Amino acid sequence: MRTALALARRGLGHTSPNPAVGAVVVRNGGIVSRGYHRKAGLPHAEVLALEGAGKGSKGADLYVTLEPCNHHGRTPPCTEAVIAAGIKRVFIGAVDPNPEVAGKGMERLRRAGVEVTSGILAERCRRLNEAYEKYITTGLPFVTLKLASTLDGRIATKTGESMWITSEDSRRRVHRMRSLVDCVIVGSGTALKDDPELTVRLVRGRNPLRALIDSDLKVPPDSRLFHPSGAGCFVFTRRGVDREKARLREERGAEVIPVRRTRNGLSLKGVLRELGKREITSVMVEGGSALAAGFLSEGLVDKVVWFAAPALLGGDALSAVGELNIRRISGALRLKDVTTSRVGVDILVEGYL
Question: How does the average pLDDT of the chain come out, rounded?
Answer without folding.
Answer: 93
